[in-house]
Design a protein that fits this description.
This protein is mainly beta. The protein is about 10% helix and about 55% strand. The protein has one domain: monomeric porin ompg (Porin, Beta Barrel). It starts with 5 loop residues before the first helix and ends with a strand.
């Protein structure tokens, strides 16, 4: 396995320190219990402010076995529109280390394209939880190798259910480009993330949350990336601040035949949670 970058080692250190400070969250003072927080952090349209820092290490890539690092900063902020409807805003801001996969050396580091999504979701609880709205692609990359150079938009839908002690659901979107750099290729891309989590005592949970992608502009043999893997996580507390810490590994079982891709992904996430008092 390749050695992680200095930034990745710092992220791993933060997770290790947080993990060693395993303090279960108390259910007092009107704050949500650990079990309630487990359900909320696994629900993409929950009425919970969170700031996840998700670091993805993808390797080996290309004939020179290069390593890519993508840190996704993903703030989620809900707004109450009416008595019956919430608007959940979810931004993905990737900070990317992109190696030159065609050579031993060379790389680019910087901000990638922003990907905001806005979900309209019922505020009243029900057995089937859902949210629907637009997903956008904003050409904010600081280097041409880190983004697609296009403005894009498309629909996004999330569906889930949470029978104790499970969370079972799926989130997907498709984005088409409509403007941007005329010299860059048009965008028509699909994303699907299914999630299956089993919640345990003392804030622990385990499950799978792979991200499937398809570039519809490629031919069939180069179109899909389909990973399989598993993760484990825990709700812990640093002082009074609840934190969701998670680690997982995924293998790309279906992948492009002729294009460079990462065989493995190691995912490390630390999410700061700001629950509302009940």
């Amino acid at each position: 396995m390749p050695q992680p970058s200095g930034f990745t080692r710092r992220v791993l250190a933060i997770v290790t320190i947080a993990w060693c400070a395993q303090i279960p969250l108390p259910a007092q003072g009107g704050a949500p219990s650990t079990e309630e927080l487990q359900k909320q952090i696994q629900n993409p349209v929950a009425n919970l402010i969170s700031v996840p820092f998700q670091n993805n290490i993808n390797f080996p890539i290309g004939r020179y076995s290069r390593v890519q690092n993508v840190l996704n900063i993903q703030p989620v902020v809900p707004f109450r529109l009416t008595e019956h409807w919430n608007l959940i805003t979810r931004w993905i801001a990737p900070v990317i280390y992109q190696p030159n996969v065609w050579a031993h050396q060379g790389s680019a580091t910087g901000l990638g394209d922003l990907n905001p999504t806005f979900f309209l979701s019922p505020s009243e609880p029900s057995k089937l939880i859902w949210g629907f709205g637009p997903a956008l692609l904003l050409p904010t990359a600081t280097d041409w190798t880190l983004g697609q150079g296009k403005w894009g938009a498309g629909p996004s839908l999330v569906l889930l259910t949470q029978p104790k002690p499970w969370t079972i659901g799926v989130l997907f979107n498709n984005i088409w480009s409509f403007a941007g750099n005329q010299d860059r290729r048009a965008v028509n891309q699909f994303l699907c993330q299914y999630f299956l989590n089993y919640n345990m005592k003392r804030g622990w949970y385990t499950g799978t949350q792979p991200i499937l992608t398809s570039n519809w502009r490629e031919d069939g043999s180069n179109r899909w990336i389909v990973p399989f893997g598993w993760s484990v996580g825990r709700i812990i507390k640093a002082g009074k601040l609840p934190i969701n810490a998670q680690v997982g590994a995924y293998y790309n079982a279906i992948h492009p035949r002729d294009l460079p891709y990462g065989k493995w992904q190691v995912r490390v996430q630390v999410a700061l949670l700001f629950p509302k008092s009940t």
